[in-house]
Amino acid sequence: MTNSETFELRFAKPSLRMRLMEWVIAKRGSDFSDAAAIKANVPTRALPADAPMPDSFKQRFNVELWEAEGQAVVTLHPKAGKGAWHIIYFHGGGFYMPMFKEHWPLVAAMVESTGASISVPLYHIIPEHDYHPANKQAAAVYETVAAEWGDDKVALCGDSAGGNMAVSLAIQRRDAGKSLPAKLIPFAPWLDMAMTDPAARNVNDKDVILDIDSVKVLGEWWAGDRGVDHPHASPLNADLAGLPPIAIFQGRHDIFVIDSRTFADKARAAGVPTKLYEYEGGPHVYMALTFTREAKDTFALVKAFLDE
């Protein structure tokens, strides 16, 4: 367990809505639960498409559609105008699934709760592409946003694989001697492509979405020519000194919770102001269940983190 300065358990018991939705998710099944099926089916599939943005967003937000490195980007501004902060949000999906329909309400809730503008890169995925196009797009989006808002008002956020991309982008920029964002906000981040910590096995049966063996297959594909141990693929292996303040949000019924704890302690030891917020009974990316007590609490904490 992480030290008391780094760690905070927000609720000792999951809400009824959280428990109900975890049961629904378990009954529905997951695209991330069968390593053999992923190996057999994904390389020959028809490339899935990003879930379209709901039409209602055009009334709720000021919407910008643009491209970076030949890949689509969607920016949502509050209806009142551009936010004081700009959050770049990388969606999850194991790097092999595009934007889910569930991501759109999550991003909308973030805009409404924080008042920030949010840009969502719709990046190329594996195995049809390797990591290079997605990383190039991420770098280009950052430069575009920072040129207008300034680094001190840019935060990087993302869920699962997207949490990896947010942290990795900051590490890559630091390693290249470039400017850094003001805040990092990983949601249930995937921090080790190889899932090397055996303690994660103790959580595997509780996780209704992810499976360690399946995740490891995807990790090898995403790491590519870097190898799974490279710190730009697996931020858990990076030197974390010099990164901006970090707030990590993590459910306890998530195999990634073990690495989040290790990462949080490592960041704190490296001198990075870091807080890990955990939610009992929270499934992987629980904050996508935007109507739950836990998700609403997370959004309020994100706003407070930006306002610090």
From TrEMBL:
Residues 87-287 form the Alpha/beta hydrolase fold-3 domain. It comes from the Bacteria. The keyword Hydrolase applies. One of its GO terms (molecular function) is hydrolase activity. The keyword Hydrolase applies. It comes from Pontixanthobacter rizhaonensis. Gene3D superfamilies: alpha/beta hydrolase. SUPFAM superfamilies: alpha/beta-Hydrolases. This is Alpha/beta hydrolase. Keywords: Hydrolase. InterPro entries: AB_hydrolase_3 (IPR013094), AB_hydrolase_fold (IPR029058), GDXG_lipolytic_enzyme (IPR050300).
